[in-house]
Amino acid sequence: MNEFDQGIMKPGIEKYAVDHTSAELPVLARLFRATHLRTHQPQMLSGHLQGAFLQMISHMIKPAAILEIGTFTGYSAICLAQGLQDGGKLITIDCNPEMEDFTKPYFEEAGLNDKIELIIGDATEIIESLHGLFDLVFIDADKENYINYFKMVFPKISPGGYIMADNTLWYGRVIEPNAESDRETAGIVRFNTYVQQLEGVENILLPIRDGIMMVRKKPE
């Protein structure tokens, strides 16, 4: 038996981690509850532990510009926007027009109306139309297109900037023998392999919630 077979994530560890993480912002707690009451797939929401991680990373980077691909109900956008520089902006893209009415009251309650811009539409078309560089990109959309999104945003990342991709462990299916038997798992497996083999970056796959791949674009 090696160290990977033994593992360290005992039952109850995630709850212990949450219990020893700074309290969730009240607006996020209300958004969490509303998401579970009003949506069909509330598990898509980042949640407290991952949200706190995203918020911490944003505070560390102090980005002037953030791009998020996949808004859902806006939980992660609110977390990421906490670390924006004065005058900074987060653009978040979603293909579901119903999300606009859902998210905007929470963006307003969080005092982030002037910092968050929600764009509804096809992310591949919208990304092409965006100008300027981003310090941080968060990908959390359709899994089979992760590589496409990554390739599209990579030239738009500032030197030393970061890309984070959610669900990169995909419920543990990435290590199963038939990992590529469905499109979403196959998309994640291909994405993880692509990043691992890519030159000009540093990357780490973190086992936080459902996995976060964090990629730093090396300065030229």
Tell me what you see in this structure.
There is one protein chain. This protein is an alpha/beta fold and 220 residues long. It has one domain (10-122, 129-217): 3-Layer(aba) Sandwich (Rossmann fold). 40% of the residues lie in helices and 20% in strands. Helix 5 (75-81) links the parallel strand 1 and strand 2. The protein is globular. The termini are far apart.
Key descriptive features of the protein:
40% helix, 9 helices, 220 residues, seven-stranded mixed β-sheet, alpha/beta, globular, Rossmann fold
Architecture, according to CATH? Answer: 3-Layer(aba) Sandwich
Order of helices and strands: HHHHEHEHEHEHEHEE
Q: Approximately how much helix is present in the residues? A: 25-40%
CATH class: Alpha Beta
Estimated radius of gyration: 17 Å
Give the tally of β-strands.
Answer: 7
CATH topology: Rossmann fold
Main sheet makeup: 7 strands, mixed
Shape: globular
Instruction: Show unreliable segments.
Output: none
Q: In order across it, which strands form the biggest sheet?
A: 3-2-1-4-5-7-6
Strand content: 15-25%
